[in-house]
Write a structure and sequence with these properties.
five-stranded mixed β-sheet; Outer membrane lipoprotein wza fold like; 26% helix; wza like fold; single chain
Length: 540
């Protein structure tokens, strides 16, 4: 019984971990900075920051923010009648001894204020001197990292370390960590909250402060969220910050895109019953002039302007007088207008019979599951219908519009004219003056087209059938449509057409026939022997 109890506990723990992971995966911030910080890992548990040694720069870029304390090492240069240099260290009591000056209290002063105090003390004791003070080594501090981290621990870091340095040096944050509500608890008892995302996104060092000795950094779990969608650069789900406004969230998301509608920004909130969703709409001016506070689980939706900066362009290439890209008007510009008046018409070498238009709509690349399935099946294993469908889809020219250029431009049949759409690609190839013959003829290749020649004439010109040709199964592949037609059904040949002479399958090899025959004979002999045995047994 105890054995089963242990199994039950293990199963319950695994189920709880699985469900927790599923819930977290559905309710986590998803902005891009987090994606950059989460390493690719095959393990179930992923950390925000990999546990790897890092180098922390000891350069102090903001002397007003760096606080002096015991262990800091300063270099003092006094230049006057005689030059003197001193290397001083702040002692555990927070003071430093400077020859000729005495004890100078420096603990708790910013680096800027400490330099100024040293200069004043020196000026009071030395006349007509110039003083330079610089920090040459920084103290080590001990800080604690707790909360939603993989391994709560204490860390010894240079005193110039900032919050992001601690996280980078740590064993890692859990994937559910809240980066926007990090609490810093100082030894003095003061506590303040910082938004590390503001540093990552805007370089705001106020939200990435220098750490102080003895401070404890608490990483909370991201259990309250807000989202922003639509026409903003950095849409997604973010940790909720108490007191944050709609305007601040929009700014955090990078502001509004050029195509954003500023007259109706929607804020979706849960009502007091925590079940019903309701929407409120605000203009951008209202959001700027009003202090609209966000609530947890709010969603801000910024919709796009319709028909905004749409590139309605088509491309024309091939044998036209002015190939290139041309603008069109929605639901107005026709194929004829573009080719005749914009592209300047056709060159002498253009083939209207082979010209075509490719139109790629939004769903043009939609996968055909049946065709994908048939790709995986050997042709001999297909049914007749499956093979016919497979051949038809294989020959399909995706996106090709059905337009008869010869009727439209030679016969002036405007029923063939079509309204162009953005992205259409018009191609007019060079006219071919030959017929191509492939397959089982003596000399396959291209033969100059002549209206008086028949299929048989072209085959004879190519040297006639080769010895393995299937002479009664010749096919014609039409140049402009790709249609396969039996030679007996062809009415006329056109330049660019292909004559295909298939090959007769080779006869089976003697050894293969012998093996098959031997197998069959053996099977028959087995059956005969079994029948004889049954007959003999029945007589006995």
């Amino acid at each position: 019984m105890k054995k089963y109890g242990k199994y039950a506990v293990v199963c319950f723990a695994l189920l709880t971990a699985f469900l927790s992971n599923q819930i977290l995966s559905q309710k986590l911030p998803d902005y891009r900075e987090r994606a950059l910080l989460i390493p690719v890992s095959s393990s179930v548990e992923k950390n925000l920051i990999p546990s790897e040694p890092i180098l922390i720069s000891k350069t102090i870029t903001e002397p007003d923010d760096y606080i002096l304390d015991s262990g800091d090492r300063l270099f003092v240069s006094i230049r006057g009648v005689e030059d003197e240099n001193f290397d001083i260290i702040i002692n555990p009591e927070g003071a430093a001894y400077l020859p000729g000056v005495g004890i100078v209290e420096l603990r708790g002063l910013s680096l800027s204020a400490g330099k100024e105090k040293l200069k004043n003390e020196i000026s009071n004791n030395f006349k007509n001197v110039n003083v330079d003070v610089s920090i040459i080594d920084v103290k080590l501090i001990k800080v604690n990292l707790i909360g939603d981290v993989t391994k709560p621990a204490s860390y010894n870091l240079p005193a110039v370390a900032r919050l992001n340095d601690l996280i980078a040096a740590s064993s890692g944050l859990n994937i559910s960590a809240d980066l926007r509500n990090i609490e810093i608890l100082n030894e003095s008892g003061s506590t303040h909250t910082v938004d590390l995302l503001m540093f990552f996104r805007n370089g705001d060092n106020e939200n990435n402060p220098y750490l102080r000795n003895g401070s404890t950094i608490k990483i909370n779990k991201a259990d309250k969220l807000v989202s922003i969608f639509g026409a903003v650069p950095n849409f997604g789900t973010y940790e909720f910050k108490k007191g944050e406004t709609v305007l601040e969230l929009i700014k955090l998301a990078g502001g509004l895109n050029d195509n954003a509608r500023i007259d109706s920004i929607e804020v979706i909130s849960f009502e007091d019953d925590n079940k019903t969703l309701s929407s409120k709409y605000f203009s951008l001016n209202e959001i700027k002039n009003s202090n609209i506070k966000l609530k947890k689980s709010d969603k801000v939706v910024v919709r796009e302007k319709t028909e905004y900066l749409i590139d309605r362009l088509v491309s024309v290439s091939g044998y036209v007088k002015s190939p290139g890209v041309y603008k069109i008007k929605k639901d107005e510009t026709t194929l004829k207008q573009i080719l005749l008046f914009e592209a300047g018409g056709f060159t002498e070498d253009a083939s209207l019979a082979d010209a075509y238009i490719i139109r790629i709509d939004g769903d043009a690349d939609t996968e055909d599951p049946e065709f994908e399935r048939l790709k995986l099946i050997p042709v001999p294993d297909m049914t007749e219908d499956e093979y016919d469908y497979f051949k038809a889809k294989s020959r399909e020219k995706k996106g090709r519009m059905i337009v008869d250029f010869e009727k439209l431009f030679i016969q002036n049949d405007d029923s063939e004219d079509i309204i162009l759409k953005k992205g259409d690609k018009i191609y007019v190839p060079e006219a071919k003056n030959y017929i191509t013959i492939v397959g089982q003829v003596v000399s396959p290749g291209n033969i100059i087209f002549k209206e008086t020649l028949t299929v048989e004439d072209y085959i004879q010109t190519a040297g006639g059938f080769s010895w393995r040709a299937i002479e009664n199964d010749v096919r014609i592949i039409k140049a402009n449509t790709g249609e396969w037609i039996e030679a007996d059904d062809i009415e006329e040949l056109n330049p660019g057409d292909i004559i295909w002479v298939p090959e007769e399958l080779p006869a089976p090899k003697f050894w293969d026939v012998f093996i098959d025959a031997l197998t069959i004979v053996g099977q028959v002999a087995t059956v005969v022997a079994a029948v004889v045995a049954v007959v003999i047994a029945s007589r006995n």
